[in-house]
Amino acid sequence: MIQVDPIVIVVDDDPSFLRSTERLIRTAGFNVKTFTSAEKFLRGTLPDVPACLVLDVRLPGWSGLDLQRQLAHVGLRVPIIFMTGHGDIPMSVQAMKAGAVEFLTKPFHKRDLLTAIEEAIERARVSRKEQAKLGELRSRYQSLTRRQREVMAHVVAGMPNKRIASELGTTEQTIKFHRGHIMQKMLARSLAELVRTAAALGIDS
Amino acid sequence: MRDRSKKKIAVPKRVRRRLKAISTQANLIARHRRREQGPEKSEARFRSYFELGLIGMAMTSPTKGIVEVNDELCRILGYERRELLKKSWAEMTHPDDLAADLAQFDRVIAGEIDGYTMDKRWIRKDGQIIDSIMAARCLRRADGSLDYFVGFVLDTTERKRAEEKLRRSEILLAEGQRLSHTASWAWNVSTGEVYWSAELFRIYGLDPKRVKPGYPSVLIYIHPEDRSRVQKTFEDAVRAQREYELAYRVVRPNGMIRHVSNVAQPVFDQAGILTEYVGTAMDITERKEAEEAVRKAHERVDLILESISDQFLSLSKDWRFTYFNQHAAAQMRRLGKDPKRLIGKVLWEEFPEVPNEANLRRVMSERIAISDELYYAPLGEWLANHMYPSEDGGLVTFQRYITARKRTEEKLKQTEAELAHAQRVTTMGEMAASIAHEINQPLGAIVNNGNVCLQLVGVPNSEQKKREALLDIVHDANRASAIIARIRGLTKRSTSEKTLLSVKELIDDVLVMANRAATNAGVKVTTSVPDSLRVAGERIQLQQMLLNLVMNAIEAMSNVEVAKRTMIIRGNPGELEKNPAVIVSVRDNGLGFSSENANRLFEPFFTTKPNGMGMGLGISRSIVESHGGRLWAKRNARGGATFYCAWPAEKNVA
Fold this sequence. Notes:
The complex is a heterodimer of chains A (about 200) and B (about 650). Chain A has about 200 residues and is of the alpha/beta class. Chain A is built from nine helices and five strands. Chain A folds into two domains: about 5-135, Rossmann fold, CATH 3.40.50.2300; about 145-200, Winged helix-like DNA-binding domain superfamily/Winged helix DNA-binding domain (Arc Repressor Mutant, subunit A, Orthogonal Bundle), CATH 1.10.10.10. Chain A has a five-stranded parallel β-sheet, sandwiched between helices. In chain A, strand 1, helix 1 (about 15-25) and strand 2 form a beta-alpha-beta unit. The two termini of chain B are about 90 Å apart. Chain B contains 21 helices and 22 strands. Chain B has about 650 residues and is an alpha+beta fold. Chain B has a five-stranded antiparallel β-sheet with strand order 2-1-5-4-3, with helices on both faces. Chain B has a five-stranded antiparallel β-sheet with strand order 7-6-10-9-8, sandwiched between helices. A five-stranded antiparallel β-sheet of chain B has the order 12-11-15-14-13, sandwiched between helices. The interface of A and B includes residues 20, 28 and 63 of A.
């Protein structure tokens, strides 16, 4: 997988602060895109690169926390760094629980922000990789027949072949045959790997 | 004085006697002539009477023609002798008396009588009416036939006139006595005879026909408490033959009491012997009663003035002290003055520095009531004065010490200021998050920009970037400083210094504090305030008041849906109690307030918020009122509430 330039998205309603943050991040070598409200950010498009959000907690209209909730809801897992002029503990706890990378209080140290950004970008990269991997696993899974998927579910649940055969009303031999094909199609080298893949795909037994 | 009114108008006895004597003499003469055919002696004597001129005399014929007259009759009737001799007495007789005269005359002619006497009037030559007493006697011849008449005429005109005058003056006197309640009396020392005027009987309530006054019998009509005093005074005066004055009460037979004032003086004869006492008595009951009523009224007024807890004093129109009640007197003593000696003294001379001199002079000259309050340093007291013009052209003042009240007011003001400060600080506490955010925003930007510059030090072609960042740093540093100044202003104690303020600036300042809270609460704020609107006031207090209203509005909308959270702040010229005013309104779309809470909104410690102190609106109201304005709330027709504050407009602002 080739490395693409990540982007840092900053949302703050104070234009002066927004400009300074943009300048700081850009000077550190990142691409930066800025918005003055959550709504404006949502109307824009997210480029297909590793991205992170630097988000002010208090925004007119939707707050930063509202936006975090909304993004999670639609399945957009963008790492978020929160900023606040005056943060309280309950607010930061809530933000961190919901998966925020960092919770910074203005004015913050450059290093803290850049470290957080780097971590967030790394998370984004990892996330992108995972997403890509998951996509591949999913397409492998898509290539299985219906019967093979049934057998796989039983296999990853840890059932012996004999038992699976009786459950599905067939012979042990047939199950063994299916199992070989499943391992081949899913590129699983071991049962353990197949179980991990099934977990990643969210397949319940 | 003797009362002559009851006497008949009459010719004095001596005159009558003389007339009778003359008439008798005439009879004698006639008799003698009849008997002796004109004896020389009698004739001569008659002639001498005739010429003596004491009395008007005439000899007339039976046909009324005048035969002989004397000079006196000529004088009485105003004719020359020769004229009279051509006239008859009948033609000179007053027509009203002629019939009576002729009747008597005919009786003489008829031989029934020899003469008669009558009061009769004559017409003088000049037309004047003459009163007279006339006696006529006939002289008969031996055969009994009439020879001639002798007439005697006594002119009583002057006397009659005097009698008339006297009578009239006596009537007038009696009338005057009745009207003036003044009576007269006389007491003859030797005979004990007492004379009372009608008025005196009236005063005593006695019937003059049934009671004969005398001394000491009169004493029974005098009030028992006064009797011995009257008796002693009277008898002492008589013994010393001196005049005296007495006032006493008379008890009328019907029990009514009259107050009488009596003045008397002794009268001496030519030999210096005391003959009688004459006096006047006056019924002074009405005067006494009036005096009593006035005295009682004065007493009542004095009692009131003395019993009131205020200082009361009066000044004449030439600024002289005329009265102090006990409290005013005490005040004068506190000032080192003797109130008794101040009476009659001029205010400005005794007290050259009177703080409310201008008001006192206005009351005196414009005749209006004025009230004022002042601090009087010599007493170390605050005084409330009420000054009124008085009917005598002067003025009166009621004064009350209000030092304690003033101190309480002062203390209350201080307490209010402290409370307002506490509330401001509390509000600040509540808004700490907002404020911190507000300040950290520019600080954050400064740090960021500073870091950028540091990063770019020594980096080629970065000058422009560094310049931009540095400009932003300066801008943000200024922004932070301005915010701090505003917040420090709010937490400072009020200076109570009033200045002319732009309403728009006030509201903008308040919104700097409140914007964050409004933003967080999702409240959309719109303002509409003309730039020209000005109000005189204390900046911090007015900001606090407006901030309270704005924060209140924001909180009121916390339970309504976000889309509806709007606040409208308006400033307009308007009217307050018919005077030009500035009205600022803060309108929200919140839950409003219930009618039962409407009256309690501004009460201290009334709050519907779980964490509210309940001081905000109360303090806001006292702030507005201390600026001479009013603060009130209305429920909006479509929900929410609008708070209005109104102040008197500043006239000198264009």
